[in-house]
Amino acid sequence: MTKEERLEKEMERDNRSMERISQSIMRIRASEKRLEAENKKKLRQLDAHNKIVMGGVIRSVLGREFEEGDDRRLFYFLKMQERNGHYFTKAMNRRDPEGNKNPNEGV
């Protein structure tokens, strides 16, 4: 086998290795995109769940069905509470001595 033939075989072997590596990279990138999409979906589901829970809490305190404009009135009420002394965030961030949120404090 001549030196030229040996070099050509080595180049072919290297090219096959590079192709396998490129395919592996493509599979990994596809997996990464799939996992990112799954994580985004889970975050959206969690966000939707949290909004539903908060809406249920507000509705139970309100004692009636939501009406047109209730969202705006609640928004401005909470903004006023924040402007006047951060009452809302203080109430929402209260914790018991072990560091757990204490939902019954101040009720």
N- to C-terminal separation?
A: 90 Å
Global mean pLDDT = 90
Shape: rod-shaped
Task: List segments where confidence is low: pLDDT < 50 over at least 5 consecutive residues.
Answer: none
Task: Report the sheet-strand fraction.
Answer: under 5%
Helix content: over 70%
Task: Count structural domains.
Answer: 2
- The helix tally amounts to 3
Describe the structure.
The protein is mainly α and 107 residues long. It has 2 domains: 1-66; 67-107, no CATH class. The chain has helices at 3-62, 70-85, 87-92. The N and C termini lie far apart (90 Å). The mean pLDDT is 90.
Compose a concise summary of this entry:
The protein is mostly helical and 107 residues long. It has 3 helices and no strands.
Give the SSE map.
Elements (H helix, E strand, L loop, with lengths): L2 H60 L7 H16 L1 H6 L15
Question: What distinguishing features does this structure have?
Answer:
about 110 residues
